[in-house]
Amino acid sequence: MDLLQKARDYEEENRIPQEERPAFHVTPPVGWxxxxxxxxxxQGKVHLFYQYHPxxxxxxxxxxxxxxxxxxxxxxxCAAALAPDEAYDKEGCFSGSAIETEQGxxxxxxxxxxxxxxxxxxxxxxxxxxxxxNYKKSAKCPVITGDMLPEGFSRxxxxxxxxxxxxxxxxxxxxxxxxxxxGQIVLFSSENLYQWKYEGVLAHSEGTIGRMWExxxxxxxxxxxxxxxxxxxxxxxxxxxxxxxNAVYFLGDYEKGSxxxxxxxxxxxxxxxxxxxxxxxxxxxxxxxMIAWMTSWDxxxxxxxxxxxxxxxxPRELRVxxxxxxxxxxxxxxxxxxxxxxxxxxxxxxxxCYNGIRGRMIDFTLTIHAxxxxxxxxxxxxxxxxxxxxxxxxxxxxxxxxxxxSGVRRDVACIRRVKLPDCEAGVKLRFIMDRNSVELFVNxxxxxxxxxxxxxxxxxxxxxxxxxxxxxxxxKYEIEL
Length: 481
Ligand code: FRU
Description:
Layout: H1 3-14, E1 31-42, E2 45-53, E3 63-69, E4 75-82, E5 93-101, E6 104-114, E7 121-130, E8 135-137, E9 158-166, E10 169-177, E11 183-190, E12 196-204, E13 213-221, E14 224-231, E15 248-255, E16 260-263, E17 267-268, E18 276-282, E19 288-293, E20 308-309, E21 316-321, E22 324-329, E23 337-352, E24 361-372, E25 375-382, E26 387-393, E27 398-405, E28 415-419, E29 426-434, E30 437-442, E31 447-452, E32 461-479
Parallel strand pairs: 1-20
Antiparallel strand pairs: 1-2, 2-3, 3-4, 5-6, 6-7, 7-8, 9-10, 10-11, 11-12, 13-14, 14-15, 15-16, 15-17, 18-19, 19-21, 21-22, 23-32, 24-29, 24-32, 25-26, 25-32, 26-27, 27-28, 29-30, 30-31
The structure holds beta-D-fructofuranose.
The site of beta-D-fructofuranose (FRU) has 13 residues, from β1, β5, β9, β13 and β18.
C-alpha cells in the first residue's frame, strides 16, 4: 500500500473549507498537526512542513504535511510530503528541518522504529531530497544512528534534527538524553549530508531544566548565538516556567574552533497557554523568522464537530536587543490591515467599549500611558456569555491571561500569570487575533503571550476597564485576506 498516496488522496477528499479554520494561521487541511518542521526558504517561497496525522484529530503515525507561502500570511496547501512507509521510519517520520542545497530541497527528519525485541523504540536521523513538491527518501537512510552517540546516551530519545550550513560544512543539532535521563543537545557535522561525524554535546540541562529536550534550533543573531529547545516535564518556576512542556531559549556565545557553546540561563519564549516546539529559518533579506505549534500537549481540547486540531503561531521576526530576544509579528501582516480605527489620549475611568474597537480577525494595539490606577482589564472575544480576559496589576507588574470563559469544555489550564517589565511608565499591548487565537506582544516584542480560544465567533466585543484613571491610545485594523 502506498501510504503517501493514501494520505494525499485522503486530504484531497476531506479538505476542510478555509472559512471553518483560522484565516492567516496555518492549520491542517484535515486532521491533526503538531510541531512545525522543515521551515525553510526554497526557490522563492517559504516552505513549512509539520507533524501531521490526516486521518483523525488525534496524534497518530506521523507524516509530514506541507504548505508554502510568499508572505507568511496567505498559505498554499501542498500534498503531504512524507509518510512512515520505510523499514527505518515505520513508527513515524518525526520532527526535523530542511535546507536548500545543490541537490535540491533536503529534509532531515527522525525515523522511528521498534526495537527487534519489542522493548521500546530507536530514533535515527534520515534524509529525503525533493523539488519543493515531491520528496524521495535517500537509499542511505538512516544517515545518523544512535550507535554514533557515546556509550550511555539514549538511542530511544534522539530526535528532531535541525540542520544548517557554515562554509562548506553542514551541521546538525538533535535532542537527546544522557545516561542519567537529563536533556542535552548533541552536535554533528558532515561535508556531504550522508556521512556524519559526532562532534559533542552542545548544551546540557545540568539536571535542572526538565527532562528530554525536544526540537532544538541553533543560530547566530545580532552577534550572539541562540539555542532554542523545548524541555519536557519541567516543574513550574516563579512566573518564568509553567509545569510540563516549555519552550525556552538560551543566549550565549559559540566558539567555532572548539565547537563549544557557553550558555546563559533559560528564558521562556512565550508566556501564553499554547506555544511549543518553535523552529526558525533565515530569509534572503536576512530576517530570522520563528514559528511554533500554537497548541499544548498538556491542555489539548477540541470543540465538538471540529475536524482539525492544532495550528501554528503567526511567524515572528526575531532580534536581540539589550541581551533579550525580541519577537514581532512578521511585517507582511501590515499589508492585510484594513479600516483603521484610532483613538489618542483617551481618558479611561471605569469600564468602556470604544466604537469600532471589536472583531476576531484584528491587529489591535492598546497603549496604556502612566496613570493613577492599580488594575487595568481588557476583555476580548466578548459577549454576554464569553470573554478572554487580560488583566494587569500595575503595583505588582503582573499580567494575567484568563480563558476560562472562552468556550473550553475540559478542565485544562486556562490561566497564566506573567511578570511584566516595570509598567509604571506605561505598557503597550499588541493583540493579533485570528478567529481562534490571541497572540499578545508586549512592548514591541519584549514578551509574547499566545493562547488558543474556542469562543463562538459572534463574541467579538472588546471592553476596557480601569479601576482609577488611565490615559490610553487605541489603534485597530481588521485583517482581510
Ligand atoms: C514535540 C515532539 C517531537 C517529536 C514529535 C512527534 O512535540 O514530541 O520531539 O519529533 O513531537 O510528533
